[in-house]
Here is the input.
Amino acid sequence: MAAMTPTSRYTEGAETRQDAQDAQDAQDAQGSQDARGPQDVRGAGTGAPARTTARRPRPRIWRGAVLALAGAYFIVPLVASFVFTVHVPGRGITFEAYTELLSADGFTESLLLSLGLAAATIALSLLLAVPALVAVRIGSPRLRPVVEVMCMLPLVVPPIALVTGITTVLRWGPDHLSRTPLYQTFIAVQNENFPIVLVLAYTVLALPFVYRSLDAGLRAVDVPTLIEAARSCGASWPYVVLRVLLPNLRASLASAGFLTLALVLGEFTIASFLGFRPFAVWIVSISGAQARMSVAVSILSLLITWLLLIALSRAGTTPSTAAAAPATTSRKEP
Here is the structure.
């Protein structure tokens, strides 16, 4: 056997290394194809790019079913109530229950009274909650649990217990304060035309909802940065609150007003025990003698509430031009 020359040894070694590299590349290609999973490899030998198969979204029928059930839960009672108000056995379809509403005794007065109480309650609750929460947010974060507990207490106290305490105070005041100027105050808060005592009671009941709405809004806004930027531009504290903070809390304020309005228009226990006659008490008072009219008024009250709530929600989502105004307008020129 002839001895191998150095040149042939070098050639044989290069061929061996090339065969090993080709085998390793084949193994890597097979492993990457296994890792990719089921794919469309059409055109692999023709040089066309491989395309993955698109997954079709599965139809989620349960969403439609849940929405249909929720819609039926709310719509079916309303439709049944409406049919009860317009269908009279032996007479057919009639709309007398609705046409006689405006001329019904006490309808307009009770509705206007409830709307006035709702407006006063919204204003008073926001006037109490907004400055307190802003002050806690800026200067005293440690007091936040205390304020939260105080605002949440009305959820623990039942309305019947609250009205019992209010009644006791109203009876105790004139007997012990008849010779003081406070006697006229007890008489004034019980005025039948506009009972301020109901506004105070409704404000207490609305505090949990107002607190939650405003607290969520303040958490979503960087209040210290906004105040520092406005104050560094020379803005006063009233300007900062009215023109910087409140426009950024527009949605939260609308949500608080939304919940307070619904609470006042539907509250019955406190007003009934105190002897006043807002809209909810008036509906119950006519339910015995005029059943169809009371149901018609209930449907109408729902429509009025929905319209007012839609108006408040639209007011909360309307972009504010005041928020976009630069705070430098309050800077005093030398």
In short: The beta strands are 87-88, 92-93. The chain has a mean pLDDT of 77. The longest helix spans residues 107-138.
